[in-house]
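Here comes just one.
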Amino acid sequence: MSGKLRLGVNIDHVATVRNARGSAYPDPIRAAKIAEDAGADGITAHLREDRRHISDADIEGLMAVLTKPLNFEMAATDEMQKIALRHRPHAVCIVPEKREERTTEGGLEVAREENRLAHFIAPLREAGCRVSIFIAADARQIEAAHRIGAQVIELHTGAYCDFHADGHFAQRDAELERLREMAAYGHSLGLEVHAGHGLTYETVQPVAAFPEVMELNIGHFIIGEAIFRGLDPAIREMRRLMDEARG
């Protein structure tokens, strides 16, 4: 569990702003390059089935120019599997996806779909991609992710962040403790543990302090903060807070 806590910067919502006008700007590939220079250890992009933000062309462009690893978030569909196998990104993170949701609302239900997901991720692993499963902090789901052959789990921090934002501090602290316990449990099974969703400057440090967590993936807050302070400074401040918590 030694080494620096990695920061994956999610650039989806640069594409959201671009797509609001159907223009060519702001360019998420330009954002990814700025993120690399500002201290990101990787870039995360979610190619949704409805292409509401990141496009197929964005994935092509990212694969062509990035010097840091791409974490390709995707639903467990045949279409997305084909795209991942064509590009062979460093990592693929399997996430739940519903067209009507505004953002990813919870973790993947692995335990109920164990057989299908085991067959789904096998070709991705064979192609050399590190397979991550985005799940709630729940022992049953972690055990299922381990059984199907995932190398990585990403714990969903959204509930913890929502409780904090709503001022429900007892529930926030209980969710944080659950995340702490499940990070340790996932690590004990030999899984690499990541975390993400909804993290802000206010909420990042308690999660960053978990020694078993090797990577945080953060996007929406950083892109929002970049409106006020610029993308490079917004990323550097997140990096500083993470390092301070870990140090």
About this structure: The radius of gyration is 17 Å. The mean pLDDT is 95. Residues 6-246 form a domain with the TIM Barrel fold (CATH 3.20.20.70).
